[in-house]
From TrEMBL:
Family: Belongs to the EamA transporter family.
InterPro entries: EamA_dom (IPR000620), EmrE-like (IPR037185)
Biased composition (Basic and acidic residues): 289-304
Keywords: Membrane, Transmembrane, Transmembrane helix
Name of this chain's protein: EamA domain-containing membrane protein RarD
GO cellular component terms, A-Z: membrane
Transmembrane segments: 33-51, 63-84, 90-111, 123-141, 147-166, 178-195, 207-227
């Protein structure tokens, strides 16, 4: 499979995660924890089989950012998985994909990056699109559509934080970075879950076990390996473009697999968010820079 095929496969897998999370009768934080545990074991096993050691010296130098971004990643998963419980998978995902617009604004405010006219207009239009998603209710969306959207936006804020933190990590990249971030997520999520009710794996039926293993092994371990192997070979803008298959698949899964309806104005608003988020990333150079690809592409990976 070529680099584009691997990227598309990874994004298609990421886009279907909402349906699998719905099939796991566990609290959102516990799903996030076991996802991180299963994926860490799987990716660690792959590195062990390949006899590829971790770059410990580089990791030590970047440890504070890695730990902080891992904590944000785990918290991000909690909010996103909770959003799936309260609103439709499509609306939760569209709310979550407001994050790239937040990154554009934060980069201008925090890092003094120049906010071009195109990026400014895209941010305003994406904000208007998000207002449409929030202000209109989709039929059959979930128990509490507004709460689900709020959780999705909260996850978007954390997703933006992960991207901004990753911008400062230069010496550790790809799977090594992700493995350390997963380990950091485990360190944060384990005490949280212990204090908030303990573990409930014994409550899982065969369907729940299959869904949980799929989320950990397929949607995280395998999909991340596909994603990072493709990212090394693709220009940053190509990776960004292909990553938008993720929310499109999520909308399709929501409608065709789960039978969830989405209102026409929510579709319009969601399309505005996605298109403007993508357009705001164009013009940043198309070289094969892993960091550039990760800015957006890895956000898709960490989202789902």
């Amino acid at each position: 499979m070529g680099a584009r095929g691997r990227m598309l496969a990874a994004m298609a897998v990421f886009g279907s995660i909402g349906a699998f999370v719905r099939a796991i009768p566990l609290p959102s934080a516990e799903i996030a924890l076991w996802r991180a545990v299963i994926a860490t074991v799987a990716i660690g096993a792959v590195l062990l089989v390949r006899r590829r050691p971790l770059p410990l010296a580089q990791i030590k130098g970047e440890l504070p950012r890695l730990l902080l971004s891992g904590a944000a990643m785990g918290s991000n998963w909690i909010l996103l998985f909770a959003a799936y419980r309260y609103t439709s998978v499509s609306v939760a995902t569209l709310s979550y994909y407001f994050a790239p617009s937040l990154v554009v604004l934060a980069s201008a405010l925090l890092f003094r990056e120049r906010l071009t006219a195109r990026k400014g207009v895209c941010f305003l239009l994406a904000t208007g699109g998000m207002a449409l998603v929030i202000g209109t209710q989709g039929r059959g969306a979930g128990a509490n559509d507004r709460l689900g959207i709020a959780l999705g936006l909260g996850a978007a804020v954390l997703y933006a934080a992960v991207i901004l933190l990753n911008k400062g990590i230069r010496s550790v990249s790809g799977v090594d970075r992700t493995l350390v971030q997963f380990a950091a997520a485990i360190l944060v999520l384990t005490p949280y879950q212990l204090l908030s009710g303990g573990f409930h794996l014994g409550a899982l039926d065969p369907t729940g076990w299959a869904a949980l293993l799929a989320v950990g092994l397929v949607h995280t371990g395998a999909a991340y390996c596909l994603y990072f192997s493709a990212l090394k070979e693709l220009p940053g803008q190509t990776a960004a473009l292909l990553s938008y298959l993720d929310p499109l698949v999520a909308v399709g899964v929501s409608a065709l697999w789960l039978g969830e309806a989405i209102g026409p104005w929510q579709l319009v608003g969601g399309a505005a968010v996605l298109v403007c988020s993508f357009l705001s990333e164009l013009g940043g150079g198309g070289g094969k820079a892993e960091g550039e690809g990760e800015g957006k592409g890895e956000g898709g990976a960490e989202a789902h």
